[in-house]
Write a structure and sequence with these properties.
2 copies of one chain form a homodimer. By secondary structure, the first copy, chain A, is α+β, with helices and mostly antiparallel strands. Chain A contains 5 helices and 3 strands. The first copy, chain A, has a single domain, classed as Arc Repressor Mutant, subunit A. In chain A, helix 1 runs antiparallel to helix 4, helix 1 packs across helix 5 and helix 3 crosses helix 4. Chain A binds a DNA duplex through helix 4.
DNA sequence: ACAATGATTCCACAATTATTGAAATATGAA
DNA sequence: TTCATATTTCAATAATTGTGGAATCATTGT
C-alpha cells in the first residue's frame, strides 16, 4: 500500500462524521447499510452525508453498491488492514517492544 | 480510547510530512530522534517541522524529551495501538470475516 | 406519464490548516 | 560574556475543507 493511498484513507477518517460512518459500517459487516439508514443513525444532512460518503469511497474505505433506488455502502476491510500494516511497518527497527506494544509490533 | 483522541490522532497522521515523521520515529524505535535529525531526513523547514511535531505531540502520538539543546522525539506506540483497536472494534458485528480481514477482525 | 422517494451535484459561505520568513528563547562551547 | 546551534513562536498569506439549501438525476410504484 503506497503513501498516497494511506494519506487518503487517514484524511478520510480524520473527521467526526466520517469516522462515525466508517465505524457504523465496520460494525454492520459485509452486508452494509443504505445511505438513508446511515443518515437515520447519524443525523447528518443528505448533501453533507453524500459528500462524506464520496470522500470515504474515493479513499477506498467504502464500497458502494446500487440496489434499486438505494445505494448500499459497506466497509472495505482490506484497505483498513493495509492502513494498519503501513503504520506499524518496521516498528521499532526490529528491536522487541514492551508488552503494551503487542499490536503495533507484530511482524510486518 | 475516546472519539476525540482518535480523531486527533487521525488528523495528525493525515498529512504528508507528519505521516513521514511518525513512520520515521516508529522505525527509529524507543530511543527516538532529535528534531534536527528528523529535519535532516525529511527536508522540511524548521518552523514547519516544529508545527508538525507539535501537532503530533498534542495528539499523543509523539513524546518529546529535552536533552541538552536537543529535543528527542519518540513515537508513542500505545496511542497507535489504541487507534487501531478503536477502528477495528466490533468488526463485522461478530460475524467471521473472510481471510483477507485477519488483522482488522481479530477480537476487540 | 406522473408522483414519490433515495441519493447526488452545485453553489456560496464559513472555518480550519499548512507554509514561510523573521524574531525570540534556550542551551552549550569558545 | 559572546557566539553558534537547536528549537519554537508569531504573523501574514494561501490553500483546503465542511456545511446546508436548492436543484437535479435515477428508480420505483400508481
Amino acid at each position: 500500500m503506497d503513501t498516497k493511498t494511506v494519506l487518503a484513507a487517514l484524511a478520510a477518517l480524520a473527521q467526526e462524521s466520517r469516522l462515525a460512518v466508517f465505524r457504523l459500517l465496520i460494525q454492520a459487516g459485509p452486508s452494509g447499510l443504505a445511505a438513508s439508514k446511515i443518515a437515520e443513525h447519524l443525523d447528518i444532512a443528505p448533501s453533507s452525508l453524500s459528500f462524506h460518503l464520496k470522500e470515504l469511497t474515493h479513499a477506498g474505505l467504502l464500497v458502494p453498491k446500487q440496489d434499486g433506488r438505494f445505494v448500499i455502502y459497506s466497509a472495505n476491510v482490506e484497505v483498513m488492514n493495509g492502513l494498519i500494516g503501513f503504520l506499524t511497518e518496521n516498528c521499532c527497527g526490529g528491536v522487541p517492544c514492551d508488552s503494551a506494544s503487542a499490536v503495533a509490533c507484530s511482524p510486518a
